[in-house]
Amino acid sequence: METRSCLPVTLLLLLPPLLDLARGYLTVTIEPLPPVVVGDAVTLKCNFKTDGRMREIVWYRVTDGGTIKQKIFTFDAMFSTNYSHMENYRKREDLLYQSTVRLPEVRISDNGPYECHVGIYDRATREKVVLSSDNVFLNVMSPPTSISVIAAESPAPFSRYQAQNFTMVCIVSGGKPAPLVYFKRDGELIEVIPMVEPPAAAAGLKDTQAYRNLRTRDMDDTKMQKSLSLLGTEGRGHSSSTEDPMWSLAAGKGLASSPTTEEIPETVVSREFPRWVHSTDPIYFFHQATLPMSDGTVEVRAMLTWTLNPQVDNDALISCEVKHPALSMPMQSEVTLASPKGPKIMMIPTRARVGDTVRIAVHGFQNEVFPEPLFTWTRVGGRLLDGSSEHDGKELVLERVPAELNGSLYRCTAQNPLGSTDTHTRLIVFGNPNLPRGTEDSNGSASSHNSYRLVWILLLTVILKVT
After folding, report:
1. Looking at the domain 146-227+279-336, which fold is it?
2. pLDDT cut 70: percent of the chain above it
3. CATH of the structural domain 17-141, one choice from 3.90.950.10, 1.25.40.20, 2.60.40.1220, 2.60.40.10
4. What are the φ/ψ torsions at residue 131 (nearest 5 degrees)?
5. Comparison of pLDDT for 126 and 169, the residue scoring more
6. Percentage of the chain with pLDDT > 90?
7. How far apart are CA 71 and CA 352, in angstroms?
């Protein structure tokens, strides 16, 4: 009795394996993928074993955290019974198959999981479909597309009496994952102290598109040679003049007739620094922020802050370098810290006449200046045409210059935290043949005396008519 009662139990235990044999077997695996770089060709490979009759193969790209599955390849055995003609599908050996999907040029948007679903017919019913699947994650890397170095501070004046903290910002865009950013000084790696919070000078930084790419270099691990020092020793003045000839004052009514060259020396602020300047190596503080971008890449802002020493830091070569798994060599951008030297002044028009609008602008320097200088214009011995004592900006505009400004001397002061320098230019105003002689006034318009004369003529005419 006991032996007979065990028989149904044994049959129940053997039933699932027997059912599996009736259905057939199906195993699906996707070969793992290493990280790939944008632009590379990638082949997704789905291997599966089965002794059943093929029904379908479907590849999905999974997005939105698995909520959306987009079909990228489908094979339907109902419409194609010849396996040798299946696209992206071939038979390796008995019962072992492989389906492949090729992405010719990978993009950042291709990053994410992919699934391979395989279906076979149930051997028992020959109609019911048995499904199995596997998934793989495609990790797409992108090398940084741009690198630039800027000063976090707006143009700042030079001060020989107070130490100034200076912050450089290295902006690296277009990378995925976030790159490794570090700074070098004259080719040597800078040892930094990490900061949790960004420096106060970097609080007002705008979007990346607003940054000006002051120095940009492509993917290159070579270092730009340090700029040669300019002629002349530090602390001495450099003679300069405007690109246009200086004109001396002429006799008569103060309007020049024959130009002669006039040398006006440039004044350079003496490099006399107080005791706060230390000769020891500065302490560098480092802060890095990573901002995700809409295209799946990131933007990295690496900030280097230290107390600027004009005696030591002038002509120092600071480089920002980037390492990334998608780069075969480091990417870098370099700047040379330098105070402004030898400003060149351009005046338009070169031969100003009474009533013209004159623009005086800084056209360049004897050296490349970083950080960006602050420009201040003044008139020697008087106020500017608009009545102000000084004007900030790279250009000074004089609207409708009067004859009284003939011979006026203008000073442009260019300064950054590393130093300050002055240059001068003299405004020579020529007579305007298009205006009647003696009709120019201090505003470059019709003379007030001529207006008074016209008023007297009208009054006399009225009086004569009355009498």
Report:
1. Immunoglobulin-like (2.60.40)
2. 67
3. 2.60.40.10
4. -115, 150
5. 169
6. 52
7. 73
